[in-house]
Structures are given as structure tokens and as C-alpha cells.
Design goal:
Layout (H helix, E strand, L loop, with lengths): L1 H20 L10 E6 L3 E6 L4 E7 L10 E10 L6 E6 L3 E6 L4 E5 L14 E6 L6 E6 L3 E6 L4 E5 L14 E6 L6 E6 L3 E6 L4 E5 L16 E6 L6 E6 L3 E6 L4 E5 L16 E6 L6 E6 L3 E6 L4 E5 L22 E6 L6 E6 L3 E6 L4 E5 L14 E7 L15 E4 L6 E6 L7 E6 L4 E5 L5 E3 L6 E9 L2 E9 L1
Antiparallel strand pairs: 1-2, 2-3, 3-4, 5-6, 6-7, 7-8, 9-10, 10-11, 11-12, 13-14, 14-15, 15-16, 17-18, 18-19, 19-20, 21-22, 22-23, 23-24, 25-26, 26-27, 27-28, 29-30, 30-33, 31-32, 31-34, 34-35
């Protein structure tokens, strides 16, 4: 029923206008290309290359040029560019790569994890170095990894557990190359440990090992400050590092996990200390396709497009930080993989600290879990126990939609907005759109003033139609 409603809205109200004008709204075809979840905040890249963020912003991790200890459930665009390719959210910071191969960072920097050579917080994206050959990025709590197009591995940030892999325990404020190998293929960062794959299918780990998360089965649980091969297998395919545990897939579609298991996040049928210090296969299925390890929970997809989850989900407590992270409409932890819903069109997962994000084949983004600061991106701060649509943002950065011909005051307003027509243009229509992309009011006469006192408090977009041009303005109703 929900999908049918969205299709009707799309067909009648939005498709023609938004395709022609490069504006995104709520559609079943979606607008999301990639996305990432951090500690109570998230960032997404739309299919036209724009970068958007939402959630907590105490360290400027939203990249909006501000720093404030409040949650923002409304999606906001980072800058005006549309050249973003990859993004990774750390605990309180983020990294991104542009189409030109340049590396950018913003947010918390108290251990140098931004890589700009300082400890300064950055509230807007800053370029890291001048290289144009960055290809992949991975973020943790206080350290970062990246790959270049030549297959070399780079690291920076805190190094107290050897998580940079450079043979020392000294933090680095700029990217430094890890070893001399040039055959690195995939990377992932946990809290204080890292895992990686080489192009020959071998698995490597380094950093903290107090919970056996390095998978070395040596009973020593000692940290490693250089990449160390895990076993001898050469058929590893995908990896994902959680807080103190890991998930991995092999080429044969089997699922493996190891490390801490206090909430059942390994999916081995146990919890509360039943950990593994070596990669161990989970079940006998051979159709696993995608994986994502969160702080205390795990999610995955199978080749048939079904969605699965296990681990921390609230422990039966409405006060739990992991409430609803699995998306099965309960707050009960699960220690084996369970299917979430019956849909078969899921494409990619990515877990935040206490929440989950999933992309569907149609480009729609869905979220569930705790929502203390609006990190789910649904425009609220309401915890969701099952997947909820993350609607597409409305783009205001297109130059064809500048509001240079009109002035709007007062803004914010409690009711009446006055519109000054600076160039005496003919106003054909004024359309008011809410943050979900829904038209809530239209006016074609007496356009010098618009009364929105009947609307709920929040953010609205005024669209002024004059001939073949459209001007826009964001209005705040208080």
C-alpha cells in the first residue's frame, strides 16, 4: 500500500518537474547513490553527485560550516558541488572523495584523524594534500585508512594500539604509506583495529586484539602494529569491521565472523562472552552477498535480495542505545541471522553506531534504529523499529533557481510572509513545498503576501513561478 501511494505521488506531482529542473523529492525511483552512518549522524551522496548530511553536529561532522550540540533531523546539503563520489563516516568525523580523486575531511580532529596536519576541528570539508589518485576510504573511531589507485595503503590518526599498521604506536597527522605493497584491494576500520584484503584474496588484520578481533588464533590477544595475515585462505571476497568484531564473505558465498560477541553480533547462536578468535563460518548457506558490521549489530544481504540482521537490538529495554537496530519491529537481541521483512529488492547495507541504513535497487534509502539526533534522516527524532523511508532532499543549489529577483520577510515567520518583487516580474504562481517534497499550498493572486499561519512549524520551500523561470527560498515557520 505504501509503495502504491508513493507511485501515485511520483506520477502525478513530481516526475516531470523534478527531472526537468534537477530537483529531487520523494519518489519511488529514489535519488541515493551511496551513504554512510556514523555516531548519531549520517551522510549520503545523491545520484547527481551532491553531498547531504543529517543528525548530530557537536564536532561539525555534518560539514555545514556550523558546530552545535543539537540534532538536525532535516537533510542539509554540504556545499553546492555535485562532484562527490565516495563518503565514509567515522565516530565524529567524515572523509570523502571527489570524482577528480581528491580527498576531503571534516569534523572532529582531536587525534589527527582528518589528516590535514593539525588537531583543529573542521566544520566544512577541507582538502587533504593535493593528490588526485585516492580511490577508497575507511573510518573508525579515531583513525583512518585509504587506498590509492596504485593499490598502496595509507593511514593516519591515533595509533595507540598500532591501528595505523606502520610498525609504531605514534599517531600521524597526515596520511603515511603502510609498507610498500601495492596490491591492497579492500579496507575496513573498527574501533581500534583494521582489516584488509589483498588482490590475491588473502586477509590481513592489525591493531587492538583484546577480544580476538584480529582473528589470529594465537591465544596471545596481543596488539599488532603491522598488517598480519589471517590464516592461509586466498578466497576472501568482502570484509566489514565492527566495534571489536568482524564480518567477512568468501568467494563461495559463505559468511564468517570473529571477535567480541556480547550481544550476539557474531551470529553464532550464542552471546555474552562467547567470542571467537579466528574466522568461523556461520551456518551453511552459500548465497550471502553483502555485509555491514555496526557497533553491536550486524546486517547482510543475500543474492536473492533479501535482508538479514542479528546482534544488539535493545535487549528488551526501551532505553537501550541499540533499540531497533535490526529493523524486525522488536527490541529483542538476536544471536543468529534473521530475515527482515519479505522484500527482495535490497541492494546495499551500511550500519551506523545504533542504527542501520539500506539502499534498494530503485535508489530509495531506508533506515531504522535509535534516532536521538535525527540520524535516521526521516525528518523526526523518533526511534524506528522497522525500515522507514529516507526521502530525497530538495536541491536549492541549482543556479537556475536563485531567488535574486525576490525578497522574503520576515524569515523566520510566525505566519505572514511579505514578498518584495524587486524587478516587477509577473508572478504566475507561488507554490509552498514541505521537507518531504509535498505541495502544501498554492497561491496565484495577491502574491505580495502569503499567510502560512495554518501550517505546522518547520522548514518550507517557496517556489515563485514567473514565466519560464523559478525562484526558490527556504522559509522557517515558527
Amino acid at each position: 500500500m505504501e509503495k502504491k501511494i508513493f507511485k501515485i505521488k511520483t506520477a502525478i506531482l513530481f516526475i516531470a518537474f523534478f527531472i526537468n529542473q534537477s530537483i529531487f523529492s520523494q519518489t519511488t525511483t529514489g535519488c541515493w547513490k551511496t551513504f554512510t552512518g556514523g555516531n548519531v549522524f549520517a551522510i549520503g551522496i545523491t545520484t547527481n553527485g551532491e553531498l547531504w548530511s543529517w543528525g548530530y553536529n557537536n564536532w561539525g561532522q555534518l560539514g555545514l560550516g556550523t558546530q552545535e550540540s543539537i540534532g538536525n533531523p532535516i537533510k542539509s546539503q554540504i556545499g553546492t558541488e555535485n562532484q562527490w563520489k565516495e563518503v565514509a563516516a567515522g565516530y565524529e568525523y567524515a572523509l570523502a572523495i571527489k570524482n577528480d580523486g581528491t580527498l576531503w575531511a571534516w569534523g572532529a580532529n582531536y587525534f589527527g584523524m582528518l589528516g590535514d596536519g593539525t588537531y583543529f576541528t573542521r566544520i566544512s570539508p577541507v582538502q587533504i594534500g593535493s593528490e588526485t589518485n585516492w580511490s577508497k576510504i575507511a573510518t573508525g573511531e579515531v583513525n583512518s585508512l585509504a587506498l590509492k589507485t596504485d593499490g598502496t595503503l595509507w593511514a593516519w590518526g591515533r595509533n595507540n594500539s598500532g591501528q595505523l599498521g606502520d610498525g609504531t604506536n605514534t599517531e600521524k597527522l597526515v596520511p603515511i604509506q603502510v609498507g610498500v605493497d601495492s596490491d591492497w584491494k579492500e579496507i575496513s576500520v573498527g574501533t581500534l583495529h583494521c582489516i584488509a584484503l589483498k588482490s590475491n584474496g588473502t586477509l590481513w588484520t592489525w591493531g587492538e586484539n583484546g577480544n580476538g578481533q584480529l582473528g589470529l588464533a594465537d591465544n596471545l590477544y596481543k596488539d599488532k602494529n603491522i598488517p598480519t595475515q589471517v590464516g592461509t585462505a586466498t578466497n576472501w571476497n568482502k570484509i566489514s569491521a565492527g566495534r571489536n568484531f568482524n564480518l567477512a564473505l568468501k568467494n563461495d558465498g559463505t559468511l564468517w565472523s570473529w571477535g567480541q560477541n556480547d550481544f550476539g553480533q557474531l551470529g553464532n547462536g550464542f552471546s555474552f562472552g562467547n567470542f571467537n578468535d579466528t574466522p568461523t563460518q556461520r551456518g551453511s548457506d552459500t548465497d550471502w552477498k553483502e555485509i555491514s558490521a555496526g557497533d553491536l549489530h550486524s546486517t547482510a544481504l543475500k543474492t536473492n535480495g533479501t535482508r538479514w540482521a542479528w546482534g544488539g537490538n535493545g535487549s528488551g529495554s526501551s532505553n537501550s542505545g541499540n533499540k531497533g537496530a535490526l529493523g524486525d519491529n522488536t527490541i529483542i537481541d538476536k544471536n543468529i541471522p534473521i530475515q527482515i521483512g519479505t522484500d527482495t529488492d535490497w541492494q546495499k547495507p551500511n550500519n551506523g553506531i545504533y542504527f542501520s541504513l539500506f539502499l534498494k535497487n530503485d535508489g530509495t534509502l531506508w533506515s531504522n534504529g535509535t534516532n536521538f539526533s535525527g540520524e535516521l534522516g526521516d525528518g523526526t527524532k523518533t526511534t524506528r523499529l522497522s525500515p522507514t523511508l529516507v526521502t530525497c532532499p530538495i536541491t536549492l543549489s541549482n543556479k537556475r533557481f536563485e531567488d535574486i529577483n525576490f525578497s522574503f520577510y520576515p524569515n523566520p515567520t510566525t505566519g505572514i510572509i511579505s514578498i518584495s518583487n524587486q524587478n516587477n516580474l509577473t508572478i504566475d504562481k507561488i507554490e509552498i513545498v514541505d521537507v518531504l517534497g509535498k505541495t502544501v499550498a498554492t497561491k496565484t493572486e495577491n502574491t505580495s503576501q502569503v499567510d502560512i499561519s495554518h501550517l505546522s512549524n518547520g522548514i518550507y520551500i517557496f517556489k515563485i513561478y514567473s514565466g519560464e523561470t523559478v525562484s526558490t527560498k527556504k522559509i522557517i515557520k515558527q
